Amino acid sequence: MNIQAPLYAEGELPRYERHILLREIGGQGQARLKQARVLVIGAGGLGAPVLLYLAAAGVGQITVVDNDKVSLSNLQRQVIHSQDRLGMAKVESARCTLMGVNPYTTVVPLEARLDAVSAADLVRGKTLAIDATDNLPSRHTLNAACAAAGVPLISGAISQWEGQVTLYDPASGAPCLACLFPVLPPDDLQTTCTSAGVMGALPGIIGAMMAAEAIKEITGAGRGLRGRLLLHDALWGESREIAVHRTAGCAVCGAHHKDPT
Ligand SMILES: [Zn+2]
């Protein structure tokens, strides 16, 4: 007789009690979180809250990709890292923190740039991918791999006081990144936190929104951000959303796109 292994370790389930109490999540949604395999690209400002909240939520497996090391100027906002980890690979520092938060989450750290590994291999078999990178080439590489594999992609971006978050999912009729931003701007127009600055709590706001959207997407709760780009201006304390649509004949998702019915 084939006996199925139990989903949770002994003593694990009570930590998810507050989720299970939510009508929109319940035991079934929590089980989906446990069975989910999530790919997170970037263990920096946005990656920090995303990783912390997904591990705390009981996501079963998190693969985290980043080629950077922890530096002093990261600590103003990248709350998953700490002073005693300066010089350590960010993915290793993140793994250490996450094991302390939830030892029942399997963390797969990969110290690499996304363009140095096969994005298609990374995306394959994942429930969801999360774009928490700080550069456009990696965003487009991840977007193309997700569109080809039909994996939903939650994407966040921040600069100075403003941030945005959306869910790209051409497989269900929503646009992909290339539908909105088809052409890479020249290198000198690509500003990052390094050159433009960023207010420390902003990645916390946007990253936590990304984590919330991920929990909703995995459990099926509420209404996700397909076709909606949420913008937040922390300097003025204002949020708004704009509708976004696929581009007919998009070079990336055109062949994979399915009209909503
Ligand atoms: Zn597209």
Task: Explain what you see.
With 261 residues, this protein is of the alpha/beta class. The protein has helices at 17-20, 26-35, 47-56, 90-101, 119-123, 136-149, 177-180, 193-196, 202-219, and strands at residues 37-41, 61-65, 106-110, 128-131, 153-159, 162-168, 228-233, 238-243. The chain has a domain at 17-160 and 196-224: Rossmann fold. An 8-stranded mixed beta sheet has the order 3-2-1-4-5-6-7-8, with helices on both faces. β1 (37-41), α3 (47-56) and β2 form a beta-alpha-beta unit. The radius of gyration is 18 Å and the shape is globular. The mean pLDDT is 93. It binds zinc ion. The site of zinc ion has 10 residues, from α7. Pfam families: ThiF. Keywords: Membrane, Nucleotidyltransferase, Transferase, Transmembrane, Transmembrane helix. This is ThiF family adenylyltransferase.
Write a compact overview of the structure shown.
GO terms for molecular function: nucleotidyltransferase activity. This protein has 261 residues and is of the alpha/beta class.
Strand content: 15-25%
Shape type: globular
CATH topology of the domain at 17-160 and 196-224: Rossmann fold
Gyration radius from CA atoms, angstroms: 18 Å
CATH structural architecture of the domain at 17-160 and 196-224: 3-Layer(aba) Sandwich
Order of helices and strands: HHEHEHEHEHEEHHHEE
Supply database-style keywords.
261 residues, single chain, alpha/beta, 9 helices, 8-stranded mixed sheet, 17% strand, Rossmann fold, binds zinc ion
Write the layout of secondary structure elements.
Blueprint: H1 17-20, H2 26-35, E1 37-41, H3 47-56, E2 61-65, H4 90-101, E3 106-110, H5 119-123, E4 128-131, H6 136-149, E5 153-159, E6 162-168, H7 177-180, H8 193-196, H9 202-219, E7 228-233, E8 238-243
Parallel strand pairs: 1-2, 1-4, 2-3, 4-5
Antiparallel strand pairs: 5-6, 6-7, 7-8
The protein binds zinc ion.
